[in-house]
Design brief:
It is built from nine helices and 16 strands. It is an alpha/beta fold. Helix 3 packs across helix 4 and helix 4 packs across helix 5.
Length: about 290
């Protein structure tokens, strides 16, 4: 794992090296299938499985996929336009859900942006006790900003690679849901896990997802998707969407506390979603099927 990471940090890996690294750990780039796979991995091995994506829309779709499997009633409420206003979109909260905090409210209590955990107790529909991944109980409640009251959370089964920078995760599922992501995304996503066997890849292996930060002058680098990497799977439509994505380029490098360095991403300035996450999960009939088993 460390040897592959160090090599990928400085140079785009060869296709054969990527195929060998992810052998036996690829998942179809279908939201429902991927969500079921993640839930199965958690059941078999324990720990938390977190999807990391390039785009906000991809993360939202995977979160809804996990919700549909484990909390079908909550998913149905959201599908029908219900739920509690969150910072972005709406949420329905219940015991056992994975949640991510989206605001810095109280650092001493752990109520900080990016903190994740599991809902342990509901006090009311918009107030609950979150057991953080560090073991700290956090009372989560609505906040009011600029006259708008909302719950500063999102679902925590999936997030973007940029938001996960600096985190250490149990199990990781990488989804490069935009063709030709910016340099460094592959390295940063992969380095969130400690062990090779804990990293999975959604969709086809593509060298172009693994461009090194400083590889502009590497004549051997591949910068266009080849016929070997193309996929016609209908659920991979996110790959061709170029707008409203987490597209900020890495800026230099920042120490990570080890002998290697990872790229530092600029904060995203475009959090709008032009793609409905439900559309990525299939038609109405697909949704009903995904919640019936």
């Amino acid at each position: 794992m460390l040897d592959f990471l160090e090599a990928a940090r400085v140079q785009q890996p060869a296709r054969d090296a990527l195929l060998q690294f992810f052998r036996g750990r690829t998942i179809p780039a279908d939201v429902n299938t991927a969500a079921r796979h993640a839930a199965g991995v958690e059941t078999r091995t324990g720990g938390c499985f977190t999807f990391l994506t390039v785009t906000n829309q991809g993360a939202a779709a995977l979160n809804l996929g996990r919700l549909a499997i484990q909390f079908p009633d909550a998913a149905a409420i959201l599908r029908d336009g219900g739920g509690i206003p969150a910072e972005i979109g709406r949420v329905v909260v219940d015991t056992g859900m994975r949640m991510r905090l989206t605001q810095n409210i109280d650092k001493d209590r752990g109520f900080v942006n990016g903190n994740t955990g599991t809902v342990r107790a509901m006090l009311r529909s918009d107030v609950f006790l979150l057991q953080s991944d560090q073991g700290l109980p956090i009372l989560v409640h609505p906040v009011t900003q600029q006259g708008r009251k909302f719950l500063p959370v999102s679902y925590g089964w999936a997030t973007t690679i940029r938001r996960a920078q600096g985190a250490t995760l149990d199990k990781v599922g990488l989804w490069f849901d935009r063709r030709l992501p910016d340099r460094g995304y592959g390295y940063v996503g992969l380095s969130r896990a400690k062990r090779r066997q804990d990293v999975f890849l959604l969709g086809r292996v593509r060298r172009t997802d693994w461009r090194a930060v400083n590889g502009e002058n590497d004549n051997s680098e591949q910068n266009q998707v080849s016929v070997f990497s193309e996929s016609t799977h209908s659920s991979e439509e996110m790959d061709i969407i170029e707008s409203s994505t987490e597209t900020q380029s890495p800026r230099g490098s920042s120490p990570t506390g080890s002998t290697s360095e990872e790229p530092s991403f600029e904060p995203s300035t475009n959090e709008d979603s032009s793609v409905d996450p439900y559309r990525l999960m299939g038609s109405q009939s697909d949704w009903d099927l995904s919640t019936s088993s």
